[in-house]
Design brief:
flat, mainly alpha, MetalloPept_cat_dom_sf, 0% strand, Peptidase_M13, Peptidase_M13_C
Length: 107
């Protein structure tokens, strides 16, 4: 996608070597195919599939974002220990990991 063409300093630059570029292209094609098969049903019950090609950049960014956030959350737990349990019954039934992904699903 377009964002990968910019280097660390914000300059348009082909900074990846060929094996990295090939790996990125392979991953991007996988994302296109995966999202292209997602066909949520609207109220009229006729499928409207996602255009994996058109949404590729956003999908890659979203996947990278959740991956980075998940790793940072794990590092936080490892460094500081688990968050104190919620007193509210509605939330105390879930693990920290479940709460993380419940919150992600609501974004």
């Amino acid at each position: 996608d377009e964002g990968v063409q910019w280097d660390f300093d914000g300059h348009l630059n082909r900074w990846m070597d060929q094996p990295s570029q090939d790996g990125f292209n392979s991953m991007a094609q996988c994302v296109i195919e995966q999202y292209g098969k997602f066909c949520p049903l609207p109220d009229d019950r006729s499928p409207h599939c996602i255009d994996g090609v058109r949404t590729q950049g956003e999908n890659i960014a979203d996947n990278g974002g959740i991956h980075s956030t998940w790793r940072a959350y794990g590092a936080h737990i490892e460094l500081n220990g688990p968050d104190p349990l919620f007193m509210d019954r509605q939330y105390s039934q879930f693990t920290e990991n479940q709460l993380f992904f419940r919150n992600y699903a609501q974004v």
